[in-house]
Amino acid sequence: MMELFYGLITGILFGFLLQKGRVLRYDKQIAALRLQDMTIVKFMLSHIIVAMVGVYFLYDMGLVKLSLKPTILGGVIIGGILFGLGWGLLGYCPGTSLGALGEGRWDAIWGITGMLVGAGIYAEAYPYLQKTVLTWGDYGKITIPQVLGVNHWLIIVLFVVMTGFLFRWLEKKGL
Amino acid sequence: MKVDKGWNPYLAGALSGLVSIGSIWYAGKYFGASTTFVRTTGMMEKIFSPERVASMPYFIKEVPMVDWQWMFVIGIAIGAFVASISSGSFRFQAVPAMWQEKFGSSIAPRAVVAFIGGIFAMFGARLAEGCPSGHGLSGSLQLAVSGFIALACFFIGGLITANWLYKGGGKQ
């Protein structure tokens, strides 16, 4: 019960910030995909670098566990591109579609309905996919520092620095 | 007219990163959204054919029930509603502005494209085992190889259809 309550509160905070950052809008998501306005990229990367530093700090202290998704190249690449193709048409992703609805952009309903149907189709196809695509290139739960055999802080520092340069470039270009 | 600019996206994104840290620390939960659609579809299918749903491998893996993430996704809608009301940016809008400029204001074309897009997006997200929240944010922040590959593929796919849809200009 407590877990459901935490979920709701966390979602409300996240939805509030997504809306304040103006990243829920179709226009913002599609503008990023048309390389005209990188607001959503700025939001996502800012989220990632802050949480990356915080979570790995807590991880080193033994206070949190990682929860990695396996790297199955067949599933991640084919699924990722299929997701992208759909995202470019819909202009909302699963999380932001509910947020968009929250700020009154009710065309999200068509997308949410489509996504529920898509989930149903996937559930039907799962036994087949499990034997095929989801066995192609299964490398298990791996991280970049594991693959490179280096300390994670080296990668984190590099990532933060590179993101900083990207942000500076985006601001210079007025994206 | 007051221009609705919202908050600086770097600030809003960074604050959301703090929310993410808090969630992982207190509740042990990483952000994600797409599994919720599976659970919801499962709950709806269960109304009509409970035995069949109970026997389907994917619904055995992702049990149709309300869980942390389900509440999280509902929370996103509530949080966005509160934020948009508080800043006066709430709008009932049937067709997004960019879409309207290129394709007009009729509802049906937008509905059809959004519906089809939704089917592909969710099928793909489940095949990849995550969406921009689960892979893009939670995966990447853990430096997961899967997170970064998925994020790159999301953008590659999105670049293809968004630019195909809007080819020949529109708003510059």
TrEMBL record, chain A:
This is Uncharacterized protein. Keywords: Membrane, Transmembrane, Transmembrane helix. It comes from bioreactor metagenome. The keyword Transmembrane applies. Pfam families: Sulf_transp. The chain crosses the membrane at residues 41-59, 71-89, 109-129, 150-170. InterPro entries: Sulf_transp_TsuA/YedE.
From TrEMBL, chain B:
Its main location: membrane. The chain crosses the membrane at residues 7-27, 68-86, 107-125, 145-166. InterPro entries: Sulf_transp_TsuA/YedE. One of its GO terms (cellular component) is plasma membrane. Keywords: Cell inner membrane, Cell membrane, Membrane, Transmembrane, Transmembrane helix, Transport. This is Uncharacterized protein. It is found in: Cell inner membrane. It is a multi-pass membrane protein. It comes from bioreactor metagenome.
